[in-house]
Each structure stands twice: as structure tokens, then as C-alpha cells.
Design a protein that fits this description.
The complex is a heterodimer of chains A (383) and B (1030).
Chain A: E1 3-4, H1 8-19, H2 30-34, H3 45-53, H4 72-76, H5 83-96, H6 106-117, E2 146-149, H7 151-156, H8 158-173, E3 178-179, H9 190-194, H10 198-214, E4 219-222, H11 225-234, E5 243-246, H12 247-256, E6 269-272, H13 286-293, E7 299-301, H14 330-340, E8 345-348, H15 351-361, E9 371-374, H16 375-381
Parallel strand pairs in A: 2-3, 2-4, 4-5, 6-7, 6-8, 8-9
Helix pairs in contact in A: 1-5, 3-5, 8-16, 12-13, 14-15
Chain B: E1 5-12, H1 16-27, E2 32-36, E3 50-51, E4 56-57, H2 58-71, E5 75-79, E6 81-89, E7 92-99, H3 114-118, E8 122-124, E9 133-135, E10 137-138, E11 150-151, H4 157-161, H5 166-170, E12 183-194, E13 199-200, H6 203-206, E14 217-219, H7 220-227, E15 248-255, H8 272-286, E16 291-296, H9 306-314, E17 319-323, E18 326-331, E19 338-343, E20 349-354, E21 356-361, E22 363-364, H10 369-376, E23 401-403, H11 413-431, E24 457-462, H12 474-482, E25 487-493, H13 499-511, E26 516-521, H14 524-537, E27 545-549, H15 551-555, H16 562-580, E28 589-592, E29 596-600, H17 604-616, E30 619-623, H18 645-658, E31 662-665, E32 669-676, E33 679-686, E34 689-695, E35 697-700, E36 704-706, E37 720-722, H19 723-731, H20 735-738, E38 742-749, H21 763-777, E39 782-787, H22 797-805, E40 809-812, E41 820-826, E42 829-838, E43 843-849, E44 851-856, E45 858-860, H23 862-871, E46 898-900, H24 910-928, E47 932-935, E48 940-942, H25 952-956, E49 962-967, E50 970-975, H26 985-989, E51 995-997, H27 1002-1012, H28 1019-1022
Parallel strand pairs in B: 1-2, 1-12, 2-5, 12-23, 14-21, 15-16, 15-21, 16-17, 24-25, 24-26, 26-27, 29-30, 29-35, 30-31, 35-46, 37-44, 38-39, 38-44, 39-40
Antiparallel strand pairs in B: 3-4, 6-7, 7-12, 8-9, 10-11, 13-22, 18-19, 19-20, 28-47, 32-33, 33-34, 36-45, 41-42, 42-43, 48-51, 49-50
Helix pairs in contact in B: 1-2, 1-11, 7-8, 8-9, 11-17, 11-24, 12-16, 13-14, 16-27, 17-18, 17-24, 19-21, 21-22
């Protein structure tokens, strides 16, 4: 057995970077028992914390990058270790030293894209509104009811452009006075912040805030729970407070107020997956279910891990940009759960979740049919 | 206008603590109202199956106290009663009580339970944690006091919509009153004792362990009921989903405790580790093949004998203690088994299925704590428990209102009981001017002379719930008993010891003119006093009572052989009936009491109890072996809760010296102790010369010492010191200590090991306390605590987290791989290097420290062993004093008139010592206030004519009860009946059978043996002196 000594300088460095709460850990191990990683492979958050406590963190280890920031362990941690913030502190140190081991390397390219074009795909900024072509979506003007912030995935990714289209279709049918800012927008920055790149997050956030203020934005509608989270909980660090609403909340409001009428029937068995950043992080559990329950013919079933205990798709914390080996994908487990409860449709409302689920769907065995849908895609069909 | 009732003390809450407080206060000559908001007294203890670490049946040891309360002339019990308002001041509180309607007229009800039989509404049974059902009208539990049903207005059909009232019709004594209304009772009281107890954490609210969703997840209190013979499954372990016996059970520790998650409690509930181990042991008793798994973090076996108890549980086959908090996985839809995920240090996360899961839920303040605070005008602490004075944990923030039991914080039964006796000491102090004014003496009917009567024996066969009834065919046993010679009355009884049923026995004595009573039930060890008293109530000499133990000696040991057990029960009863025929009426006698107390040990415990007794007016001799008062507290300077110890200690010493009734003898040694309860004679040599002290009671508070380590370079390297030495150097502002860059503390030095197999209880908190103090002056100091289990129980857990917050680092070690300490030179500086494996890292951590502090064990004072010999009191294997009963007589010795408190009993914190000191004082006060004490009638006596003056009996007697006296016929042995304990050793030694033990005469014993089986008896039996005692 190796003998090591506590490394004081590293302990202080981790503390400086925001990992102070590691100190509270009393090693009960509960984090490991709720961590989704331990359903697919061994990963010990407890060990990561223990190493950090003594300044013994292996800064080149891939384990630093595993956490999807799903929020399960801080929810259960009896000592208040704040695993997400503390874990990001370690990534900050790695990122500052430009250490992105093995599969984590793509984070570098992602950062380049975000820095240059404001999106992780390094697509041209000027094409950001291309998804809306032919949908007669207005540019946002001061005085409009709401800004629709479609996020990078819904703007550029082919599968998710359909969600953006469905969303604006619904908004128009409900007579919502909204607009988009297209090329003026940048990535919300939520996920890059979780990779430890605080500077880049700040740049993106400031760009967006300036854009919002210049255009007189007061209320922002988002499709991504990640954007929701950062606009609502992190942008206030810059002393701004926009009214932020997630599409599932807004849809529920449109339906219950009668602005949106669901006329058709949807005779399918549907299960709803709570995205981590909508559910656990922001408490949006009931609205999406209320929407689905309002649909006639639709049978809503629950998967074993639901609501507060929802199983992460694997896409948070920057992991959406990292290639996860096939056998280690949480999304595969999630699809099995959906099929297990007899669902024909796996509905959710997060672009990362949809991306991962669609990926996992490709490897489903013959005969196992499961549709992956954003909640807006279901509603659009009923109008 | 209602007239106000004048009473001395109002006790609010009828759990074990309130019961004990009432009994002590009533015995001390105060008139007591004992009220409880539930329909019966008993509290949480009445729901427990057994109690740790002695595994006594909980109800069996508690229910005799119900009887004592019920029969006590100075106690009035009001159940289903709450306090509305409290006005006034100490000595003169005006309290308004609300008696909730139970819709049954107590004075008319006979407790026959017909109403419940006919009631059509089934409701979940609260007493059984809703695991079984009861009726809308029902008696709270079988041994309930009072044994009167109550109606739950929320479920009763009549009270809901007027649609039923069947009970009214079937009740013969017309005791049902469906129109009963709330009644206000105004009382004027001198003092109030608050003992509202606790509630358990509700794991259903946050729902992280599947409670209320998965059927086979139960709480530990649910499980107590499942284990209990009076529980939902009559003592067979079954799981709720299919009522099938489970084969694997998991316990999850710290449910609701030790956490900063919203909805949880940050403190440690202090009792769960031990109660879980108890449940494991009992479960394995029920089914030796059971797979028991306990998921835990630290094991907090900090109480007396808890360490051994933990080892006992851990060493049972198929018992696994796994150090991991867990999460509940899922419920198998077919089997309803529950899966649990836990983590291992080196093998990742594992998932296992269990047939059943028990959540070890923590303790919380009573649900209505806010209301309690407002009603009584008392402050609460941040957790909602009662805020107490850290230097007198019996005092609330409002003078005249005292606290007892778990409302002061999570405590177990002994502390609740000692605290109850402590309230007696404080109330006695406050109300000494009116003691006895309102109280009454117990009056028994005149004893009837049965010497000319024919023998008429009554036999009562008790089912003890299911304890006996499940194994022994009691109806056939009762029938059989009725056929025995001289038996004129034979009945069964479900719980003979319940207050109402004991009354039935008294009634039968009168009605059937019985002159001998045989009770076939449990053991005389716990229940003989109760039934002897029952005989007195009926005007029968109490020595006409005879116990036939068909529980310990029969149903418990032959539970697998019902037929054999039934036959044996008949045999035992036949023997007892034969013996009963020969029983003689014996007289007990009264001895005067010297109203002087002796306190041995001038530490905080001794001084506190001395002052408490002196303040009431008793003369007290306080002996201290050192040249000044103070004891261990001299070495303590600050506490975790912020007390500055030395000014408090100086003040206490000043009060003691100043008190005209306290005589302090310093440099004192005791040379001889003689005498007995009420009349001790103790010879003392001190700096003021020789003195012979006559005293009625003694409190032994001889304290303890800090272990002098031989481990870890102690004594060899001046950088190594003990915790107390560190504390001393901190207050002396020693630069070497305060300026140190790194400091390591090692816990459990000298205890939790083979030769000292106990936990010293205080050291974890001591280390945290010192670490926090050091961090206060030198925040940059690196402090490491190397520990086995952090035992910061109760509210101290908050300070453990605070130490983490201040960057104190904690490293766990296992005894198989302890830290290695060596002196090294690092960068030219001599250092202490401590190397210890860390399980989670899978590496050894080496720390170079400027200082090493050893949390050295608390060891008994050598003076304790001397006192044990002088006062003939018992010690436990570790050299601490052994109390009379670990749960219910925590400050009494088995020897009458001698009490204990402080560190000599077991390591404890300062506030705990103070609380216990008041408890011991309370018990001693009750003895000292009496003018006489009663001595047993079952003692030896010498037939002078037969005595040959050989002196064999004198040598045999270990109590010094026999001596020679001069008679006209020469020197004859004579027995001092007060000292005689009735063990009969002398009987066996006497060559002429001149000395006899009354109540165990040859006639009585031999008739009993003869009735067993004539062939079995031989000469050796006839010579055995001890037969017949159980």
C-alpha cells in the first residue's frame, strides 16, 4: 500500500476554486449509492471527495470528468458536500492547466466554437436563425410579449430543429406575440461552466445579457432546461433578473388558460422523463405531466426512477460533448425502463436528453419500437 | 366558579420519566397530578418490546410502576388531559387543565371491553403503529392504566353523524356518555415537571426510503411492535405485505438524523445504534437462521455496557454490520422484497435484496413543541427541544418548571429515570416548606387473622399476553389447578399485573375468602412486590403470596414443546400450591432513619448532591480524599456548549464550604462501614482527625481518572500528551501548543480493547472541543483526528460538523491496523510522524505533526474498589459501579440506602454528572425524609435452645448479620434482621438446624419438592438451602 502525505497547496487551491465544501464529507458513501455511474461501471464520488480533502486529486484522471451534475448526490448528501460546485472546482484546475484526458479532449474544440461562433458545433453564427426559415418567425422587437431563446441544439442540430419548429407552431397557434434574436444570441454557457471554463461562461453570459438588454427583453421562453437553469439561477450573479419560463411551464399555462386548445386525440402510452435541470435542479415536475394528462386518449405511465429520483440521460456537466462508451450510457438504461413500463413514446423536454435518447434508440433490438419526443412535438400534432 | 384544587407538583407527560418523577415526588411527601394527553400512561416505553442492553421485557418492568402510581395515595392520574394555560410563579402556579372527552365515564366503567366487541368501526391501532386494527372505542393497550376505553371522535359513527350508539346499548354499567364534553380543571401547583417525551422521525414525509410506498419497509418503532408478543402478529416476526416470516432483514441507521438535508435533523439521536443491536439480537433469538444486515456510519456504543452489547450483536452468525449509508432501490413486484444499494471502499456499489427493511428512525421533539413552549413559557433550543441550563440540565428557562426525559434532547431510559429523580431533588428544594402538608399515608385494611381458618388457596394463571398463553394451554392448566388440594378458586388472567387485573385478584381474595394466593405467571424478581401489595390491599398478610414462575422457567425455555410446557406448568403450580399450604404470616418491621447523609467524593457530582440535600435541611458529611474539593472538573476549563468551568466550580466549592449543614472532610479515608439502610456508621480518618459518622444514606461519587498511556511514545517524547494535558496547555496559552503548525489526535487510546472493553464516551467530544478551541486562536493549524467511530452523540454532532467546517480532518482507523507513530527529523526539525491507512483512499496517509494528542481512556478511580468493599456494593467488569437496575434504578445500588452518581458510575460529561447527582440526591432525599424504613420479614431466626454456639453461621454470613449475644443460657447466635438478606447460607452450615430462614422453612421447601415427584427427592435435596428461590 502506497503511503502519501496531505498536499497542502492543492487543498488550498481546490478551496480557492470553490471546492471548500469537500471538507464536510464524513464518508458515508451515500453519494456512490445514488450515482447513476454505478449502474454502468464503478465510479466513486466518495473517493474523489476524499482525495480532494487531502489534496491528493489526480488532476489527469478521467474520473474528474464523469459527473453529469445530475444532482442526485447533493440531494441525498447528509453533510452538504455540494458535489457539483466542488467537483467543478477540480475541473477548473484541470482546465486551467489545459488537461482534458482521452475522451474529454473534444471540450477543447467545443470551447473554440463557443468562443468564436457562440455555439459548441463551431457552426457559423450567422446561420443561427436558419432553422426558422419558412416558419415566418418574427425577429424580437421591444414590446413583444416574449423572447423565444431556442438554444444551440434547437438552432443547429437537425433532430432538434423539429422541436424548435413545433414550438413556434404552437406559439403562433396560441397567438403569442413572440420573436427570436437569431444570430445575436450566444450559447447560454451553462454546460461549459460545468467543465471548469469560468471565463468562457462569463463571456457568453455577458454577451447574452447585453443582447437581451439592448433589445429590451423582459421575459424569455426557453426550450432547454440548461438555459432555464443558468438564466434563472446563474445570470443573476451579474445583477440582472429576466423573467424566465420553460416551455413545459408555458405550455401548461397556455392550455389551462384556454389560449391553446387540444382538439385531437393521441391514443398512445406515453412516459415522461424528467430532465435533471428541469426536475431536480428547478422543481419542474408537475407541469409536463399536467400537459400530458390533458391530452385525450393519452395514457401516462411512470418509469421506476421518476421525478426527484429521475435517471440522468448522461448529457449534463459537459458530458453531452464527450463520447461515452456504448456499455456505459445511462440513456440505454432509461430506454429500457421506458420499454419496461410498456411505453410507446418517451417524452421529455430537454435537447440533451433527446439527443442521447435518439442515439440509444438506434441500438434498440428489432421489435422494440419507441418514439422519442419532445413534449411540444406531441402537442403540435393535436392542434 | 370551579374551586381550585391545591397540589404540590404537576407532572406533564406520563412516560417512564413522568412516572418515575411522580413516584419519587409522591414518596417525598408531595401531592402530585400526573397528566398525559394520551388515553393511558406509559409513553413510548410501553410500545417497546425489550430494552437494551439487558433485554428486559419493556412492559414487564414498566407496568409494575403503573400499579405503584395507581395505588399511591399522593398521585392522581389524569389521562386524555392537556395543559391549557400556566400562570403565576414558582410555588404558586395557576394551571388550567383540559380533560378531553373520552365519552366513557371513568367511575362507572369496569373495563370489560364489551363495547369494543360490539363496535362496528375498525380503525388502525395506534398503539400497534397502525399495523393492526382496533375499534373506534377501545382500550389503548391491554395493561393500560386506566383500563378504560376511549372513543376516537374522528372515527366513531355516532360522533360523526349520529348513526350508531351500539356501545351505549351494550354497556351494562351505563358508562358510555356520547355527550360528554371537554372539562376544565383548575389547579394551583407549586412546581411543574415537564416530561412530554419525544416523537419519532417520520420517514414518510421526505420519502427517501420508500416508507409508506413499499409495504415491507417499516420503522424501528413499527418493528418493536412486530417483535412484541402483544403486537400485531403476537410476537411472531412477520412482514406486512404477506404476513410471512422474513428470512433476511436490513436495518438502515441514522434515518432522519445526522444530516443537513431539508426535513432531517442535524443531531445524532443517540439511541438508535443500541436499539438496533437489541432488535438484531432479539430477531436472532426468534430465528437463529435470520440474515441480519445493518447499514451504518459510526457505531455509537457510548453508553454503559454498550460496547459489549455491540460485540454481542456483531458476533452472532449471519449478522453483518456494513459501514455505508444506502439508498433504497426498488420493490420486487412479485416477492415485494426490497433492494438496497450500498457502497464499499474497494468493490464499488452493490445491490442486494432483503425480505424486509427496518428504518432506524431518530428522535424528535414532541410534535407540539411550539405549543409547549408557548403554554409553559419556556425557551426551546434550535432543534425544538427544551432549552436547559447547561450547568443544571433539569432547569428550564422558567423558574419552577423542571424538565425530565427526552424533551431535553435525545436520551435513553436510564437518563430519563435519573433525570426524573433529579426533578424530585429540585422540587424538594423549592417546596421543602410545604412538604407533607397535602400528602397522605397509604392506608391498608386491617390484616385478618387466618390462623384458625381452613386453608383456602386461590390460583391465578396469567397468560402474560402471549408470552405464556401462546405456549402453555392455560385453560387446561387453570382447570387442573382447581382440582388441587385446598384450591377453592382458579382463574386465568391475560395480564395479571395490569392495574385493573391486580385489583380483580384483590377482589377475589375478599369474595372467596382466600387465605393463600398462588400466581402462576412471571418472576418474583420484578413482580413479587406488586402482588404482595395486592394481598395487603385485600387484608391478607403479604407472605401468604406465592409465585409459580411458568414464564422464565417454562414457556420461554420450552416454546417449541407446547405439550411438555403445559405439563410442566401444572407441575410447577402443584408444587407451589403444596408450598402455599405451609406459608406463615410474617411481620415486617420499621427501623428509624438517621436524617444525615454521607457523600463520598468532592467532585462536581458529590458536591452537587451534597448541596441539594443540604439545601433541603439535611446534615451532610462530604468526604474528599484529596486536599481540596473539585475532582476531575479541576482539569476542565471549557465545554462544547460554551461553559466556563472554573468559575462555576469555584462558586460550587464556595457554596459547599459556606453551607452550615455541610461538613467537608478533606484528605479523608474511610476505615470502616457498618450498619444498614437508615442507620449506617462510618469511621473516617481525615485532616480533622478521626470521626464516626452516623448517617441514614450514602452517595458514592468517587469519580474517575484519565488513563496514563503507554502507547504512541507517551512519556518518551514531550510532543506527545493526553487530551486533558492539551486542555491545560491551551488555557495556559502554551506557545508550543498554540503556535503548532500541525497537530494529530488519536482516539480510543486505552479503551475499546480487550482489557478495557468499554467506550470512554467523552473523548470524541473532548477532541472536537479542543480542536475547535485551537482553531479559534490559530485558524491555520492543521488538525487531524484519527478515530474509530466518532461518537459525538446528541447535539454534539453539530460540533463535529463545525470542526469539519473549520477544516479539521478526520481519518478512520480499524483496530487491526492502528496508526503507527514514530519520532522523525524532518527539515532539521524533530517531528512526530503518524501513519495510518485510509480505507477510502486505499492508501496510507503519513502526517508529520508538531504535537500528538492522545484521547486517553477514562478509568475508574482506585477509591471505587475500596468503597465497593466497604459498602458491599457491586462493580461491573470494568471497575465502574453497578447500579441496581440498568434501566429503572440507574442511581440506586442493590444495597439499600446507598446511591451512586458521576464518573464512578461510568464516564460522562459534566452536565450528565450534574443531572445524575441531582438524581442520586433525589433518591437519597426520599429515604432521609422518612422517619422509618421497612425491613423484610423473610429473614433468619435462631431457636436459642437448639443453638450450640459453634459460630458456623457467623462465619458463613457475608453480610455480618449474625453475632453472639449473651443469654441466661449462655452465648447464643442472634440475627440482626435488618442486615439479613435471607440467602440461607447459615441454614446449611448449622449442625443442629437451630437457625431457620423464615418464608423458606423446611416444611415449605420439602412440601414443594415432595409435590414435584416423590421419587426425585433424595437426601441432597433436603440439605440444599437455596431451593425455592428463583
Amino acid at each position: 500500500v502506497e503511503t502519501v502525505a496531505p498536499f497542502k497547496e492543492i487543498i488550498d487551491l481546490i478551496k480557492e476554486q470553490g471546492g471548500d465544501a469537500f471538507k464536510y464529507c464524513y464518508q458515508c458513501g451515500r453519494c456512490d449509492t445514488v450515482c447513476p455511474w454505478n449502474r454502468v461501471r464503478d465510479f466513486s464520488m466518495r473517493k474523489l471527495i476524499r482525495e480532494a480533502t487531502f489534496g491528493l486529486t489526480d488532476i489527469e484522471s478521467e474520473d474528474l470528468w464523469r459527473c453529469t451534475t445530475c444532482g442526485r448526490c447533493p440531494q441525498y448528501c447528509p453533510r452538504g458536500v455540494k458535489q457539483i460546485e466542488s467537483g467543478v472546482a477540480l475541473r477548473k484546475i484541470a482546465a486551467e492547466n489545459d488537461i482534458f484526458p482521452g475522451p474529454i479532449a473534444p471540450i477543447r474544440t467545443v470551447s473554440v466554437g463557443l468562443m468564436g461562433e457562440g455555439n459548441p458545433f463551431n457552426e457559423e453564427r450567422k446561420n443561427r436563425a436558419d432553422w426558422a426559415e419558412g416558419l415566418s418567425v418574427k425577429p424580437f422587437k421591444e414590446g413583444m410579449e416574449i423572447l423565444y431563446f431556442s438554444c444551440c441544439y434547437l438552432s443547429y442540430a437537425p433532430r432538434l430543429k423539429k422541436v424548435a419548429a413545433a414550438t413556434v407552431d404552437i406559439l403562433k397557434k396560441a397567438g403569442v406575440n413572440f420573436g427570436i434574436l437569431g444570430a445575436q444570441e450566444s450559447c447560454c454557457g451553462e454546460s461549459i461552466r460545468k467543465t471548469g471554463n469560468e471565463d468562457l461562461f462569463k463571456k457568453l453570459a455577458k454577451d447574452n445579457i447585453k443582447t437581451f438588454i439592448d433589445n429590451g427583453v423582459k421575459k424569455i421562453l426557453v426550450s432547454s432546461p440548461h438555459s432555464y437553469h443558468t438564466f434563472k439561477n446563474e445570470y443573476p450573479e451579474f445583477m440582472v433578473n429576466f423573467e424566465v419560463v420553460h416551455i413545459s411551464q408555458y405550455l401548461q399555462e397556455l392550455i389551462s388558460s384556454g389560449r391553446l386548445k387540444l382538439t385531437k386525440e393521441y391514443a398512445k402510452k406515453v412516459t415522461y422523463h424528467d430532465p435533471c435541470y428541469a426536475g431536480r435542479h428547478n422543481g419542474i415536475f408537475d407541469e409536463p405531466r399536467q400537459i400530458l394528462k390533458a391530452v385525450s386518449g393519452l395514457e401516462l405511465v411512470e418509469m421506476p426512477d421518476n421525478r426527484e429520483d429521475s435517471l440522468c440521460c448522461g448529457g449534463g456537466g459537459g458530458r453531452i460533448w464527450v463520447e461515452t462508451p456504448k456499455a456505459e450510457r445511462f440513456s440505454d438504461l432509461r430506454l429500457q425502463q421506458a420499454i419496461g413500463v410498456g411505453a410507446e413514446v418517451l417524452a421529455t423536454s430537454c435537447p440533451y436528453c433527446i439527443t442521447n435518447f435518439e442515439d440509444s434508440r438506434l441500438s434498440l433490438e428489432d421489435g422494440e419500437a419507441l418514439e422519442i419526443k419532445d413534449i411540444t412535438e406531441i402537442i403540435q400534432e393535436l392542434l | 366558579m370551579t374551586e381550585k384544587t391545591l397540589i404540590d407538583v404537576l407532572v406533564v407527560g406520563g412516560g417512564i420519566s413522568g412516572i418515575q418523577a411522580s413516584l419519587d415526588l409522591a414518596d417525598a411527601g408531595f401531592k402530585v397530578y400526573l397528566i398525559d394527553k394520551s388515553p393511558a400512561i406509559g409513553g413510548k416505553m410501553s410500545q417497546l418490546d425489550k430494552t437494551f442492553p439487558s433485554n428486559d421485557c419493556s412492559m414487564c418492568i414498566e407496568s409494575p410502576k403503573f400499579n405503584e402510581c395507581s395505588r399511591h395515595p399522593n398521585i392522581t392520574i389524569l389521562t386524555y388531559t392537556e395543559v391549557d394555560t400556566v400562570k403565576g410563579k414558582p410555588g404558586n402556579f395557576k394551571v388550567s387543565l383540559v380533560r378531553k372527552p373520552r365519552y366513557v365515564i371513568e367511575s362507572k366503567c369496569t373495563g370489560c371491553n364489551i363495547c369494543a366487541e360490539y363496535c362496528p368501526v375498525k380503525v388502525p391501532d395506534q398503539y400497534n403503529q397502525n399495523l393492526s386494527s382496533n375499534k373506534a372505542i377501545h382500550i389503548y393497550f391491554s395493561q393500560a392504566l386506566p383500563l378504560i376505553p376511549y372513543i376516537d371522535p374522528k372515527t366513531c359513527l355516532y360522533l360523526k353523524d349520529g348513526s350508531c350508539a351500539i356501545c351505549e346499548g351494550v354497556c351494562k354499567p351505563r358508562a358510555i356518555d356520547l355527550h360528554q364534553e371537554e372539562e376544565i380543571v383548575e389547579v394551583e401547583v407549586g412546581a411543574i415537571v415537564l416530561s412530554p417525551g419525544f416523537d419519532t422521525f417520520n420517514p414518510g414525509l421526505r420519502n427517501d426510503f420508500g416508507y409508506g410506498i413499499f409495504e415491507n419497509v417499516v420503522t424501528s418503532l413499527d418493528y418493536e411492535r412486530i417483535l412484541c408478543s402483544t403486537g400485531p402478529y403476537e410476537g411472531t416476526i412477520r412482514r406486512p405485505s404477506d404476513k410471512v416470516h422474513p428470512h433476511s432483514i436490513a436495518w438502515i441507521q441514522c434515518v432522519g438524523s445526522r444530516q443537513v438535508i431539508p426535513g432531517g435533523n442535524s443531531y445524532c439521536s443517540a439511541v438508535c445504534c443500541a436499539y438496533t443491536q437489541k432488535q438484531v439480537i432479539l430477531t436472532k433469538d426468534h430465528d437463529a437462521g435470520m440474515q441480519a444486515t445493518i447499514f451504518h456510519n459510526d457505531i455509537r456504543a457510548f453508553g454503559k455496557d454498550f460496547e459489549r452489547f455491540y460485540q454481542r450483536a456483531e458476533n452472532l452468525p449471519d449478522v453483518r454490520f456494513i459501514r455505508s449509508y444506502v439508498s433504497i432501490g426498488s420493490e420486487d413486484p412479485q416477492t415485494k422484497n426490497v433492494s438496497i444499494r450500498y457502497s464499499t471502499p474497494d468493490k464499488g456499489v452493490k445491490e442486494e435484496q432483503f425480505d424486509m427493511v427496518v428504518l432506524s428512525v431518530g428522535l424528535e421533539p414532541p410534535k407540539d413543541f411550539q405549543q409547549l413552549s408557548e403554554t409553559f413559557g419556556i425557551e426551546l433550543n434550535s432543534h425544538g427541544f427544551c432549552k436547559v441550563n447547561p450547568l443544571n440540565p433539569i432547569e428550564t428557562s422558567r423558574p419552577g418548571i423542571y424538565i425530565s426525559g427526552a424533551f431535553q434532547g435525545p436520551v435513553d431510559i436510564p437518563e430519563s429515570v435519573a433525570g426524573a429523580s433529579a426533578t424530585d431533588a429540585l422540587c424538594s428544594q423549592l417546596l421543602s416548606y410545604r412538604r407533607g402538608d397535602l400528602s397522605q399515608e397509604r392506608v391498608y385494611p386491617p390484616e385478618k387473622d387466618v390462623s384458625e381458618e381452613e386453608i383456602r388457596i386461590g390460583v391465578v394463571t396469567c397468560l402474560c399476553g402471549a408470552n405464556i398463553g401462546r405456549v402453555v394451554d392455560t385453560p387446561s392448566v387453570a382447570d387442573y389447578a382447581g382440582t388441587l388440594p385446598n384450591v377453592v378458586y382458579s382463574q386465568e388472567n391475560i395480564f395479571a399485573c395490569s392495574t385493573e387485573n391486580a385489583q380483580l385478584i384483590a377482589d377475589a381474595i375478599v369474595e372467596h375468602n382466600l387465605n393463600r394466593v398462588v400466581l402462576a405467571a412471571c418472576t418474583p424478581r420484578t413482580h413479587e412486590p406488586l402482588f404482595r401489595d395486592t394481598c395487603r390491599e385485600a387484608g391478607l398478610n403479604q407472605y401468604f403470596f406465592e409465585f409459580a414462575n411458568i414464564r422464565e422457567h417454562c414457556s420461554w425455555v420450552h416454546s417449541k414443546d407446547k405439550e411438555g410446557a403445559t405439563q410442566k406448568a401444572k407441575d410447577i403450580i402443584r408444587m407451589s400450591v403444596a408450598r402455599a399450604e405451609h406459608l406463615e404470616p410474617l411481620q415486617e418491621f420499621q427501623l428509624p432513619v438517621t436524617h444525615v447523609a454521607l457523600v463520598i467524593g468532592g467532585g462536581v457530582a458529590g458536591m452537587t448532591s451534597a448541596l441539594s440535600m443540604a439545601n433541603i435541611g439535611f446534615e451532610v458529611y462530604l468526604l474528599e480524599k484529596a486536599s481540596d474539593l473539585g475532582g476531575m472538573a479541576r482539569r476542565l476549563h471549557y465545554t462544547l456548549d460554551g461553559v466556563d468551568v472554573q468559575p462555576f466550580l469555584d462558586d460550587l466549592i464556595r457554596q459547599v464550604y459556606k453551607h452550615p449543614s455541610i461538613h467537608v472532610l478533606l484528605a479523608a479515608t474511610i476505615t470502616e462501614v457498618s450498619g444498614y439502610v437508615g442507620n449506617f456508621v462510618t469511621k473516617v480518618k481525615s485532616e480533622s482527625g478521626f470521626k464516626e459518622i452516623l448517617h441514614g444514606a450514602a452517595i458514592i461519587a468517587t469519580g474517575a481518572d484519565e488513563y496514563k498511556p503507554t502507547e504512541y511514545l507517551y512519556g518518551q517524547d514531550d510532543k506527545v500528551m493526553t487530551s486533558l494535558e492539551l486542555e491545560d496547555r491551551i488555557v495556559k496559552k502554551d506557545e508550543k501548543v498554540l503556535g503548532a503548525q500541525s497537530l494529530v489526535m488519536i482516539q480510543c487510546v486505552g479503551c475499546r480493547q480487550k482489557d478495557r472493553n468499554y467506550c470512554s464516551r467523552v473523548c470524541c467530544s473532548q477532541s472536537i472541543k479542543n480542536a475547535l478551541k485551537l482553531k479559534e486562536t490559530n485558524p491555520g493549524m492543521d488538525i487531524y483526528v484519527i478515530f474509530r467511530d466518532m461518537r459525538t452523540y446528541g447535539f454534539k454532532e453539530d460540533f463535529y460538523r463545525e470542526a469539519s467546517n473549520k477544516d479539521v480532518k478526520f481519518i478512520r482507523y480499524e483496530p487491526v491496523d492502528p496508526p503507527v507513530v514514530e519520532a522523525v527529523v524532518e527539515g532539521g526539525q524533530p517531528m512526530i510522524r503518524v501513519t495510518v491507512p485510509d480505507q477510502i483512499l486505499g492508501q496510507k496517509i503519513a502526517i508529520d505533526a508538531d504535537l500528538l494528542v492522545l484521547a486517553a481512556a477514562v478509568v475508574p478511580s482506585p477509591a471505587s474498589a475500596e468503597m465497593a468493599k466497604l459498602f458491599k456494593v457491586a462493580m461491573n467488569p470494568d471497575g465502574f459501579f453497578q447500579e441496581a437496575h440498568v434501566k429503572l434504578r440507574p442511581v440506586d445500588f442493590a444495597a439499600d440506602g446507598v446511591f451512586l452518581c458521576g464518573l464512578a458510575h461510568y464516564p460522562k460529561h459534566l452536565n450528565e454528572s450534574i443531572s445524575q447527582a441531582y438524581g442520586a440526591a433525589g433518591r437519597a432525599i426520599n429515604l432521609l425524609t422518612k422517619d422509618t424504613v421497612t425491613a423484610s420479614g423473610a429473614v433468619c431466626d435462631v431457636e436459642d435452645d437448639d443453638c450450640v454456639s459453634c459460630g458456623a453461621c457467623i462465619t458463613a454470613c457475608t453480610y455480618g448479620a449474625i453475632e453472639f449475644k449473651n443469654t441466661p443460657k449462655g452465648k447464643k447466635a442472634t440475627v440482626n434482621p435488618v442486615l439479613c438478606k435471607g440467602d440461607g447460607l447459615c441454614n446449611a452450615k448449622c449442625p443442629t438446624q437451630a437457625i431457620k430462614l423464615k418464608h423458606y422453612t423446611d416444611d415449605e421447601i420439602f412440601s414443594q419438592i415432595d409435590a414435584a415427584d416423590p421419587d426425585m427427592v433424595n437426601e441432597s435435596c433436603r440439605n440444599c438451602p437455596g431451593l425455592g428461590r428463583s
